[in-house]
């Protein structure tokens, strides 16, 4: 209550209040000075209010005393419960953790005044989650309280923590929060096979690297702690089979490493081991983190194709071997227990010329044609062996046949020799060196001998000297030669080899007599082969002739095209009034297109003529125009057409393009009335064609033409 010393109690003074919450939260009785609160005060919202009060003269409004300031402090009471910073906490710890392992810390705050009593003193306790976890009362730290908690037994825990003020005493307010605790996995479980023995079957035809079965060891752990590596530790099939790990399913995939053979071995026993790849040393005391199992693999018999005794055969044969001679033998057997008989054949795709054949019963290969090493050195054929009872079971083997050389070719000149001798040549002068080649093969190198044919030795004007190095030289035998007496000499030369049997051939050297200068350079010669006249070859003449023919054909085609262009169709301009109906046929092909629609209804049945003359070509002959009678006013179109038709039928000079189709009759009862411009001749003045624009897109062309004509007249 406020009271002024100047207050006489007569009501002459008035008390007023200002400041925090004045008039709203705090009100004052202006007569007595009593201050009252209008609603409940909350310290947590505002702990201190500063107010100013003053007494004024009610009549004059002037203060009778200076303004007074006073402070209102709100005393705290425990009206706020503790609040956790999170509604739900999530935490995780590894399984098998020791007692007292830190899990998570929870925090609660109290809005009450911590300096006034115990209203803000919070104490933590656990309401749910025992005996697995505990909480420190003052810090809110949650710890494990039970030893060896196993994730495989229970993975999720829900703990409820309470925070209570007033130091936990009775009457204090409290709040709770939930903590979800997850146990994370550690590798504390070894892999275990669900059974000790596994049985698998594999056909002997299973190709290498093919899977034949899967096994799996179970591991209660997850993720990398459950990763398993499989291996074969022992067994009689250690080198025949392998095992790999499927990373997605953690299964062991058993595969074949080598080809199986039922006849050789039909049962394999393996020992397989499954081991964890990530072992935690802390849990080695629980035992070895691996397990083993036995695998029995039964090989099944299948019908296999014959097997050759070798993967490939190489046969050598001389090229002079007689036809039907056996050059080698291939052998194949059925590997199955039945030992089915085998027949042999040659794959004709590898022996298109049928040079070789084979005995289907014993596999003997023999020749069916003569061989020539110089033509083909190697013959690569394929032999097929198939079971007689089941021809689908077959196999192939390559046979490489090498043809050995036999001295069956005589040596010959390395090139065609044609030389000359000067008329003024001296005796024993070298004019040509000869060399020879032999198609046959020689292991020690070829040795050729050269000599003049015996029948020409005595009469020859030249001598031949064998150089003993597979070459020979031709020398002159006399001093001078006369080309007018003898212009050409033919020197027969015998070439022999030293192989067995000896082969020889006779080659001819052409020697021409020519005039030479003092240095031996040829000046002129009777031999046409040594003089090459300048001129065009036959091929060049043929090419020139073809060019001329092509040029003539081009000129003829060009002239024909020019002639065709002179016959232009009449329908070439949209401004041609005579053919304006053809130009504006938006719906079809016009009068000329009689196939598009039936225009019979537009014509007078009596005027139909099957033999119509063409209207699309300018007439070649121009006739003198014929004056026709002027149509009567208001003459019906049908009568007009019949009149013109009769005149054209009787007049031989009528142009062929002025036909009935140009002025076809459109029929009776047209809603649009007549579109013909024939009647416009009888009309005085200009006509108004604006109504054409109202008839739609089909008459747009006519509307544009006649509308533009009107606009041109106006302009």
TrEMBL record:
Q: Where is each Cadherin domain found?
A: 4-84, 85-193, 194-308, 309-413, 413-523
Q: Which PROSITE patterns match?
A: CADHERIN_1 (PS00232), CADHERIN_2 (PS50268)
Primary localisation category: membrane
Gene name, please?
Cdh6
UniProt protein name: Cadherin-6
The places in or outside the cell where this protein is found are:
Cell membrane
* Functional description taken from the UniProt entry: Cadherins are calcium-dependent cell adhesion proteins. They preferentially interact with themselves in a homophilic manner in connecting cells; cadherins may thus contribute to the sorting of heterogeneous cell types.
Q: Where is region (Disordered) located?
A: 185-214
Query: Transmembrane residues, as ranges?
Result: 540-561
* Keyword line: Calcium, Cell adhesion, Cell membrane, Cleavage on pair of basic residues, Glycoprotein, Membrane, Metal-binding, Repeat, Signal, Transmembrane, Transmembrane helix
SMART domains referenced in this protein's UniProt entry, alphabetically:
CA (SM00112)
Q: Which GO terms describe its biological process?
A: adherens junction organization; calcium-dependent cell-cell adhesion via plasma membrane cell adhesion molecules; cell migration; cell morphogenesis; cell-cell adhesion mediated by cadherin; cell-cell junction assembly; homophilic cell adhesion via plasma membrane adhesion molecules; synaptic membrane adhesion
Per the record, the domain of life is Eukaryota
User: Which Pfam families does this chain map to?
Assistant: CADH_Y-type_LIR, Cadherin
Q: List GO terms (cellular component aspect).
A: adherens junction; catenin complex
Under the heading CDD domains, the entry gives: Cadherin_repeat
Please give the Gene Ontology molecular function terms for this protein.
beta-catenin binding; cadherin binding; calcium ion binding
Membrane topology, as annotated = Single-pass type I membrane protein
- What InterPro entries does the record point to? Cadherin, Cadherin-like_dom, Cadherin-like_sf, Cadherin_CS, Cadherin_Y-type_LIR, Catenin-bd_sf
């Amino acid at each position: 209550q406020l009271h002024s010393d100047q207050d006489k109690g007569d009501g002459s003074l008035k008390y007023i209040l200002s400041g925090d919450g004045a008039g709203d939260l705090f009100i004052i009785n202006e007569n007595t000075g009593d201050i009252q609160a209008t609603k409940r005060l909350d310290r947590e919202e505002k702990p201190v209010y500063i107010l100013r009060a003053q007494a004024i003269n009610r009549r004059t409004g002037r203060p009778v005393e200076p303004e007074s300031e006073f402070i209102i402090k709100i005393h705290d009471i425990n009206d706020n419960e503790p609040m956790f910073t999170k509604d739900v906490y999530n935490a995780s710890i590894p399984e098998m953790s020791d007692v007292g392992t830190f899990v998570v810390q929870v925090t609660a705050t109290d809005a009450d005044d911590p300096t006034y009593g115990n209203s803000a003193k919070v104490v933590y306790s656990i309401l749910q989650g025992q005996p697995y976890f505990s909480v420190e009362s003052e810090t809110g730290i949650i710890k494990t309280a039970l030893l060896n908690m196993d994730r495989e037994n229970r993975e999720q825990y829900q703990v409820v923590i309470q925070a209570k003020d007033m130091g936990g005493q009775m009457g204090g307010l409290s709040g709770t929060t939930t903590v979800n605790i997850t146990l994370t996995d550690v590798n504390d479980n070894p892999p275990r096979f669900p059974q000790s023995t596994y049985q698998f079957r594999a056909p002997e035809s299973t190709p290498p690297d093919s899977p034949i079965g899967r096994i799996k060891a179970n591991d209660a752990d997850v993720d990398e702690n459950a990763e398993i590596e499989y291996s074969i530790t022992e067994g009689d099939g250690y080198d025949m089979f392998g095992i790999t790990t499927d990373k997605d399913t953690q299964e062991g995939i058993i595969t074949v490493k080598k080809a199986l053979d039922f006849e050789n071995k039909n049962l394999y026993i393996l020992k397989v081991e499954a081991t964890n790849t990530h072992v935690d040393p802390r849990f080695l005391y629980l035992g070895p983190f691996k397990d083993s199992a036995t695998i029995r693999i039964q090989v099944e018999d299948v019908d296999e194709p014959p097997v050759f005794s070798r993967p490939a055969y190489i046969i050598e044969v001389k090229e002079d071997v007689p036809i039907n001679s056996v050059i080698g033998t291939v052998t194949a057997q059925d590997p199955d227990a039945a030992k089915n008989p085998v027949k042999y054949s040659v794959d004709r795709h590898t022996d298109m010329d049928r040079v070789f054949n084979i005995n289907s019963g014993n596999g003997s290969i023999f020749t069916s044609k003569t061989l020539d090493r110089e033509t083909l050195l190697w013959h690569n054929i394929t032999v097929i062996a198939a079971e007689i009872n089941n021809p689908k079971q077959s196999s192939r083997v390559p046979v490489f046949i090498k043809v050995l050389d036999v001295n069956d070719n005589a040596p010959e000149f390395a090139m065609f020799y044609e030389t000359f001798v000067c008329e003024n040549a001296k005796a024993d002068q070298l004019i040509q060196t000869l060399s020879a080649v032999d198609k046959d093969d020689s292991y020690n190198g070829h040795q050729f001998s050269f000599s003049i044919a015996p029948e020409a030795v005595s009469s020859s004007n030249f001598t031949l000297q064998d150089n003993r190095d597979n070459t020979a030289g031709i020398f002159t035998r006399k001093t001078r030669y006369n080309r007018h007496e003898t212009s050409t000499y033919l020197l027969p030369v015998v070439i022999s080899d030293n192989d067995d049997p000896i082969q020889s051939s006779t080659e001819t050297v052409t020697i021409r007599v020519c005039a030479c200068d003092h240095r031996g350079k040829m000046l002129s010669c009777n031999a046409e082969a040594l003089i090459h006249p300048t001129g065009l070859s036959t091929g060049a003449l043929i090419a020139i002739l073809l060019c001329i023919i092509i040029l003539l054909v081009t000129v003829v085609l060009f002239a024909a095209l020019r002639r065709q262009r002179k016959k232009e169709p009449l329908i070439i301009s949209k401004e041609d009034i005579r053919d304006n109906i053809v130009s504006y046929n938006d719906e079809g092909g016009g009068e000329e297109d009689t196939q598009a629609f039936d225009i019979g209804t537009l014509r007078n049945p009596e005027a139909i003529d099957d033999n119509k003359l063409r209207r699309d070509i300018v007439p070649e002959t121009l006739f003198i125009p014929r004056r026709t009678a002027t149509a009567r006013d208001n003459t019906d179109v049908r009568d007009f057409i019949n009149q013109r038709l009769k005149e054209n039928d009787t007049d031989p000079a009528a142009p062929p393009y002025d036909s009935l189709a140009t002025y076809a009759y459109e029929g009776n009862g047209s809603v649009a009335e007549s579109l013909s411009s024939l009647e416009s001749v009888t009309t005085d003045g200009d006509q108004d064609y604006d109504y054409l624009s109202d008839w739609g897109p089909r008459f747009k062309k006519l509307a544009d033409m006649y509308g533009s004509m009107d606009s041109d007249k106006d302009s």
